[in-house]
């Protein structure tokens, strides 16, 4: 993230100005990881899927989701830093935006989640 401060700044601005869009994108990535079988409850984290009411300010271009994926530490007093390869964790390869690396996207995911819970996503070898 320090190698591309403009991108880091743009991420912060997007979160500040379009937080609903950023949070919807995070939910989409979490859903992709669950579908790929790489996001699941472990000794370090609890992954829950809860029914969600329709959002009042749902963006017209994005379909409404009827579920919210919640990732929490299994032990509230212990925080683990996720370690995963974003190129494989979501199933089908996720294309990085031009000029950005997978590491920068992973770091953005950490910041966007607001906490680090366990080894996040378990890689399948």
Helix proportion: 25-40%
Unreliable residue runs: 60-64, 114-125
> Number of helical runs?
4
Radius of gyration, rounded? 15 Å
Shape: globular
Strand-pairing-aware structural class = alpha+beta
Provide mean pLDDT, rounded: 75
Distance between the termini: 27 Å
For the largest beta-sheet, the strand count, sense and barrel status come to: 2 strands, antiparallel
Percent in strands: 5-15%
Strand order of the largest sheet: 1-2
Q: What is the number of E strands?
A: 2
The topology string of helices and strands comes to HHEEHH
Describe what you observe in this structure.
The chain is an alpha+beta fold and 125 residues long. It is 38% helix and 11% strand. The chain has helices at 5-17, 19-36, 86-89, 102-113, and strands at 45-51, 67-73. The chain has a two-stranded antiparallel sheet. Helix 1 (5-17) packs across helix 2. The longest helix has 18 residues, at 19-36.
Task: Label this structure with key terms.
single chain; 125 residues; alpha+beta; two-stranded antiparallel ribbon; 4 helices
Summarize the entry for a quick read.
The chain is 38% helix and 11% strand. It has 125 residues and is an alpha+beta fold. It has a two-stranded antiparallel ribbon with strand order 1-2.
Secondary structure elements and pairings:
Blueprint: H1 5-17, H2 19-36, E1 45-51, E2 67-73, H3 86-89, H4 102-113
Antiparallel strand pairs: 1-2
Helix pairs in contact: 1-2
């Amino acid at each position: 993230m320090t190698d591309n401060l403009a991108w880091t700044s743009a991420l912060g601005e997007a979160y500040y100005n379009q937080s609903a869009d950023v949070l919807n994108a995070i939910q989409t990535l979490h859903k992709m990881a669950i579908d790929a079988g790489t996001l699941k409850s472990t000794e370090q984290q609890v992954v829950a899927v809860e029914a969600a009411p329709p959002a009042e300010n749902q963006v017209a271009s994005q379909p409404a989701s009827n579920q919210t994926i919640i990732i929490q530490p299994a032990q509230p007093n212990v925080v683990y830093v996720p370690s995963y390869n974003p190129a494989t964790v979501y199933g089908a390869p996720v294309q990085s935006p031009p000029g950005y690396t997978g590491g920068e996207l992973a770091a953005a995911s950490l910041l966007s989640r607001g906490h680090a819970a366990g080894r996040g996503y378990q890689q399948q070898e």
